[in-house]
Specification:
The structure holds two protein chains of two kinds. Chain A is an alpha+beta fold. Helix content of chain A is 56%, strand content 14%. Chain A has helices at residues 2-37, 53-61, 182-207, 215-236, 240-260, 275-292, 295-302, 309-355, 362-406, and strands at 66-69, 72-75, 77-82, 86-91, 105-107, 110-113, 116-120, 129-131, 134-140, 143-150, 153-158, 176-177. By secondary structure, chain B is an all-alpha fold. Chain B has helices spanning 14-149, 153-167. Chain B is rod-shaped, with a radius of gyration of 67 Å. Classes of the chains: A alpha+beta, B mainly alpha. At the A-B interface, helix 2, strand 9, strand 12, helix 3 and helix 4 of A face helix 1 of B.
């Protein structure tokens, strides 16, 4: 019994390091490294000595242009587009990635801050490969601002353009990032995995015709039948076969990416907890729903029958808003659930560092590790359920929206 | 609280939007068309074949039952036929025996009758013989009597007279 407990605790310790150590050690390391290597402090960069759980968690759920697994930083290809200058294509290894995904070099005016590519729009910043001295993060009116220190001077960096149009503090900036980021790479890997899995399962159905399922086929079949019989058939009526590939694609795509993001020691790519991904799925679901919508569906939205005129005045706008609210909730539900799960796990692990006061108090750190162990294990178990449930919910709601849009008149 | 990091996941960047769309569409179009349909069809096919096998098994069981009852029926019929054949055989036997007996009886009777007839004939012949012999004997006796009597003429004439008288 004790043996298992010790093994689990040591596992947790390793995991805690893999999750939280970059933030924890970066500053001490950076301070040592930078004070030794470069003339530093010229820009007045103060390194936070206190551990910031919030920043750590946000850093770890964010997308990045580098794939960090434990101490390894795997470089990823960067495809950057500046409307005034054109395309830049290079590997993110050129940034000379250090701890915390911080690049020691600037390439053509691009820098790597916290694993993410940013751009110095300032004309006086050199458009070649130069060494930079560090980044200064500040909070201006609740907005995250990052400056890069080069040659004793601070330059404002632009974040990549985002499609939220300022709603969440993003917007169109001086460049676009079409890189294969950590999330995009995870997407690519999982797409390849899924294609391989389903192609081989499909081949198994042809090869083992009339025989009992075996191997991978046996693993996929119950899940497939579950979605087919409990999602597609009840919600889509006699059209279930037409929409089965779409519902299945959504379900398996979300499911696999949910699980992939929760593999410990594997970078924890938070693809399904990124609004961009859920937005794409929601928009596709919206398009499929409304392009399949029949006359009956549109009539009920635009001119609900059997309703007095004064009710129609209220009902029709509500119905029209509802058409857009549905995919919006799909998008936000998946995003919020997965992001929240990742954040909570990261915060529980951060407890170890908060109590340990960044390594000053080993005793408190160990005590917190025991508490954090149980909290994290509990949360991970919950997250495994959430991963399945959210994929299922996304699929079942999409099926029900399509079902409602394709339902034949029955009165 | 000051977060010196960006809550970037809520800002959908164009790169991830682009790649998500590409990868999802590839997955949907490729696997949706080539694998999911095939798997769904495979499952349907198997469900159908299992249902068919069950139906066939049920049918076979019913047929088997029918066959068994048919066999029993045949057996009963055969048994009945055997009994009938035996009965008929017995009847035939009895009849044959009865007929034989009747014929034997009739033939016996015929033989007896023939024997009787022969005996009668023989008897008649014997009687005729006896009568002839007796006639001859009587004639001889009469001859001998007449020879003796007619030695005395007177008596003879008298006797002839009497005879003549009687004839007259």
């Amino acid at each position: 019994m004790y043996k298992y407990l010790i093994i689990l605790l040591s596992l947790l310790a390793v995991q805690a390091t893999s999750y939280a150590s970059p933030e924890d050690t970066t500053h001490t390391h950076n301070a040592l490294h930078e004070s030794g290597d470069h003339s530093h402090g010229a820009c007045g960069i103060e390194h936070e000595t206190e551990f910031d759980a919030g920043s750590t968690a946000l850093h770890h759920i964010a997308d990045a242009n580098v794939y960090s697994i434990g101490p390894f930083n795997l470089p990823l290809p960067c495809f950057l587009y500046v409307p005034t200058e054109g395309w830049y294509v290079f590997s993110s290894s050129k940034f000379d990635i250090g701890h915390h995904g911080t690049g020691h070099k600037a390439i053509n005016g691009f820098v790597l801050d916290g694993g993410t590519v940013r751009r110095v729009a300032d004309e006086s910043f050199p458009k070649t490969e130069v060494l930079v001295d560090g980044f200064k993060h500040s909070d201006v009116d609740g907005k995250f601002v990052s400056h890069v220190c080069y040659n004793g001077q601070l330059y404002l960096t632009d974040a990549k353009s985002t499609a939220d149009f300022g709603v969440f503090g993003g917007g169109i900036t001086s460049f676009y990032d079409f890189s294969l980021t950590k999330n995009s790479t995870s997407l690519l890997l999982m797409t390849i995995l899924l294609i391989w899995v389903f192609m081989s399962v499909n081949a198994a159905y042809k090869k083992r015709k009339g025989k009992a399922p075996a191997g991978l086929q046996n693993f996929i079949e119950p899940i497939f039948i579950f979605i087919q019989d409990d999602v597609c058939k009840p919600f889509l009526g006699n059209k279930w076969e037409k929409y089965l590939p779409f519902i299945m694609s959504i379900f398996f795509f979300v499911l696999v990416l949910n699980f992939y993001g929760q593999i410990p020691f594997f970078g924890g790519a938070n693809v399904t907890g990124n609004l961009a991904f859920t937005m794409v799925l929601a928009i596709i679901a919206f398009l499929v729903t409304n392009f399949s919508g029949n006359g009956h569906y549109w009539k009920h939205i635009l001119w609900p029958p059997g309703v007095p005129l004064y009710v129609k005045v209220i009902l029709v706008p509500v119905e029209i808003i509802g058409v857009f609210i549905k995919p919006l909730t799909l998008m936000l539900r998946l995003f919020a659930n997965l992001t929240a799960g990742h954040l909570v796990i990261l915060v529980f692990i951060s407890l170890i560092f908060i109590f340990g006061n960044s390594g000053e108090s080993v005793g408190a750190s160990l005590g917190a590790a025991v508490g954090s162990f149980f909290l994290t294990m509990f949360m991970m178990a919950i997250e495994l359920i959430v991963a399945f449930v959210q994929a299922f919910v996304f699929a079942i709601l999409t099926a029900s929206y399509i079902g409602a849009a394709t339902e034949e008149a029955h009165h | 609280m000051l977060f010196l990091a960006d809550f970037s996941v809520i800002k959908p960047d164009f790169g991830l939007l682009f790649w998500s769309t590409i990868f999802f569409l590839i997955f949907w179009l490729l696997i949706g068309r080539f694998a999911f349909k095939g798997i769904a069809n495979g499952l349907k096919e198997r469900a159908r074949s299992i249902q068919e096998s069950l139906d066939e098994a049920k049918k076979a069981r019913v047929e088997m039952q029918n066959l068994v009852s048919e066999n029993e029926q045949l057996l009963a019929q055969a048994r009945e036929e055997r009994a009938q054949i035996l009965r008929e055989a017995k009847e035939a036997k009895d009849q044959i025996i009865a007929e034989a007996r009747d014929r034997a009886k009739a033939e016996g009777q015929l033989l007896i009758n023939n024997a009787k007839e022969a005996i009668e004939n023989l008897k008649n012949e014997a009687m005729v013989d006896v009568k002839n012999k007796a006639g001859l004997l009587a004639l001889e006796v009469a001859e001998r009597v007449l020879r003796k009597e007619l030695s005395n003429d007177d008596a003879q004439v008298n006797y002839v007279q009497t005879l003549l008288k009687e004839i007259k």
